[in-house]
Every structure is written in C-alpha cells, then in structure tokens.
Specification:
The protein is an alpha+beta fold. The protein is 28% helix and 31% strand. Bound molecules: coenzyme A. The site of coenzyme A (COA) has 21 residues, from strand 11, helix 7 and helix 8.
Length: 281
Amino acid sequence: MSISTRPYEGPDDLRLMQQLCVEAWPSQWHVGDLAWDRFHRAGHEPEWRTTLWLEEGRCVAWAWFRQPEGELAFLVHPKRRELTAEVVLKEDARSTSALAEDTQTVAVLERAGYVATTADEPFMVRLVRDLADLVDPVLEQGYELRHSPELAARVAVHRAAWEPSRLTEESYANVMRAWPYRADLDCVVVAPDGSFAAFCLAWLDRENGVGEFEPVGTHPDHRRRGLATAVSTYALHRLREAGAHTAVVYARGDAAYPAAKLLYESLAFVQHVRTRTFTHP
Ligand SMILES: CC(C)(COP(=O)(O)OP(=O)(O)OC[C@H]1O[C@@H](n2cnc3c(N)ncnc32)[C@H](O)[C@@H]1OP(=O)(O)O)[C@@H](O)C(=O)NCCC(=O)NCCS
C-alpha cells in the first residue's frame, strides 16, 4: 500500500487527523484535544508546520510542529507503527511527549535520539471515569448551571480562570466552529450577578463513546465553593445523555500543581496513563 505525505491544508485535514485519533484510541490524543489545541490560541496557525501521512485518502500519521516552543505533537496509526521513526524525526523538534505506557513509541523515540526528562519534571496524567453512576450536581444558592453559553461572557470567564490567557472572542468562535464542538456540552455556572463563574467544555468522541473535558476553570472570585465540581458533574450528565459511557481528562500529575488532579479525583476519576516528555539534544 503506498503512503504519501503532504502539508496540512486546512480544517478538512484536521478532520482527517481527528479520525486517526478515533481509530487509534486510547492513544495520547482525543478528538477534543485537537480541536481545542488547534484553535484556542489566537494567531498561531501560520507558525505551525503540520504534515499528514495518507494511505488511500485516510490519515495514518500526523506530525504537528508547534512553534515557537519547538514541540512536536504526533500520532501514528497502531497498524502503521513502522512510520513512527520517520514521523518523530520529520521536524527539528526540541521536545515531544508520549504516553509512558506506550513502550513501543518510547523505544522508537529513544532510538531516534530523544532523551526522557527526569521524573520530577512537569507531566500530565489522564484520568478516567465511567458514567454509570453519577450523582446530581450541587450548587450554592444563587448560582445556576447552564449550557450553550453566550460568546463574550464565556471568553471572559475562561480568560479570568486561565490568566494570562491567549483566548480571544475570535479564537473561541473558531473553537465553536471546530468539529466536534457542541454547544450543549459547553457548560457554565452562572453567578448571582449574571456573569459566568465556572465552566467545563466537554468533547464527545461518539464512535468510542468517550467524552473529554478540555478545559475546566473557575473564576478566581468564586473558587473553593464547589463550582468546578458542580459544572463538571453537570457535564458528565450531559456527556452520558449524548451517548458517552466514559469520560477522560488530563491534569498535571507532578506535585507542583495538585489542584486539578485533586478536583478530578474528588469526582471519582482515577489515573490510568501519564505522559513523559522527551528532549532532542
Ligand atoms: C482547579 C479549579 C478549576 C478548581 O475550581 P474550584 O471551583 O475552586 O474547585 P472546587 O471548589 O469544586 O474544588 C473541588 C476540590 O478540588 C480540589 N481543589 C480545588 N482547588 C484546589 C487548590 N487550589 N488546591 C488544592 N486542591 C484544590 C479540592 O480537593 C476541592 O475540594 P475541597 O474544596 O473540599 O477541598 C480552579 O482553581 C481553576 O480554575 N484553576 C485554573 C485552571 C485549571 O487549573 N483548570 C483545571 C485543569 S483543566
């Protein structure tokens, strides 16, 4: 079978890359990661170089070189693992990451000259939870749960939670246009004054029945009142109604930033994989 490569040409190619995420699941990348990462930061598209490996019109590997960081994100179809060495050396990357549990990919990275960073460097864990048993969300009086938020207030609460943030109304409008964004999975807590106090954006990989949170946040003025817990619980219900049986979320796994992992563990998520960062000297 002949495999060709070509540069990324636009949103239709993101769909091909996301279809590979669906076929390769459970890999490092959920369809929601690609939609969010590609669009939420304003103005980066021209700096990135993305390459697709195609076989009979299907994407069997992709390499996404993120500048100015010099980071390589990549994915290879489990049936085309022989492409991994070529994919990870496609760009002159300074760093990349892989799931520590994916020993075959880790071995290829090491043979290609990548060096694993030390164990105490920042890393991400992916936590998982099945959606069979859900409790109802609980909110302090005056707060309300909603979905399908209005753009300006939605962007304002994200920017406050993730200060400093590169999200803009224009970039969030691009997120909303990206497949598989659904307004009914874009969940918020409305504060008594009508502003948004917390949010949880959920993405559904319908074929695998797996939903992902990316991202979650609470406005600094409203923290430690159970709002992230409530909006995430609400999003779990919405994912289940949309057909998901499992939810996943990434959080920092190292001790320097424990809040998010503690939040998800308190929601009955458990860690199942972690990332490892590699540098290329
Ligand atoms: C992490 C974050 C979403 C928590 O929001 P929140 O509304 O304050 O969270 P909750 O009140 O629902 O907290 C639920 C549990 O999470 C944990 N938690 C939340 N904030 C924490 C913190 N700063 N330190 C340690 N644990 C924390 C606690 O276990 C907490 O339960 P407790 O209050 O009974 O101890 C918020 O601090 C935030 O927006 N941070 C910046 C963005 C971010 O990191 N998002 C998550 C990763 S996608």
